[in-house]
Amino acid sequence: xxxxxxxxxYINQAVNDIxxxxxxxxxxxxxxxxxxxxxxxxxxxxxxxxCEACGxxxxxxxxxxxxxxxxxxxxxxxxxxxxxxxxxxGRPTVHVKWDDSTAILSGDAMLTMAGQLVMKVVDDKIxxxxxxxxxxxxxxxxxxxxxxxxxxxxxxxxxxxYLNMIRLKTSVLxxxxxxxxxxxxxxxxxxxxxxxxxxxxxxxxxxLQDDYLDTFGDPxxxxxxxxxx
Length: 229
Prior knowledge:
The protein is an all-alpha fold and about 230 residues long. It has a single domain (about 5-220), classed as Farnesyl Diphosphate Synthase (Orthogonal Bundle). Helices cover about 70% and strands about 0% of the residues. It has ten helices and two strands. The chain has helices at about 5-15, 25-35, 40-55, 60-85, 95, 100-120, 125-150, 160-185, 190-215, 220; strands at about 85-90, 90. β1 (about 85-90) and β2 form a beta hairpin. The longest helix is centred in the last third of the chain and has 28 residues, at about 190-215. It is globular and about 45 Å long. The chain starts with a helix and ends in a 7-residue tail after the last helix.
């Protein structure tokens, strides 16, 4: 396995190498803008690390890593519209730099592109489990977002309800990233499931901290406005 710095450089280079159609520019420019804004690259990093931990090379899972990063950023485009967020990673959000319609349509395109990338597997025998995991996870993320929206109108949300919401909205995607890496590497089911649980628990810890910073953090450090979530 490699260092997190190596993974970050590897992923950023792969992102930079994405070839977008020239036209229509209004559809693809916001996608390139979003992915170029950086971020932690945590999800693709976990996917590649899991793949290598299970005995395969990072190159064998680069498309899935890009697909997961593309999917994650698609959710951010739509999330920023829903939350009326003006800043993301220290830069204007897409719906501010362009408009709401652009953010929605470019986000839709990112979702489709994410699926196209994830399904580019080395071995067609794993295509079905890869796509089933991706699609199941996507639906869970949408369920989590709906709970998040519902909770905005309640003042009696329990701890268990909150934890289930962030599990769906955030954690399952980290779990899926780890499991996808394992599946691509040909790991056995028990290993893949264990890596899924690891990623899910990591996602819970990540979102707990993120929500804490959204309440008490410094916008200059946090990279977006406080209280937006």
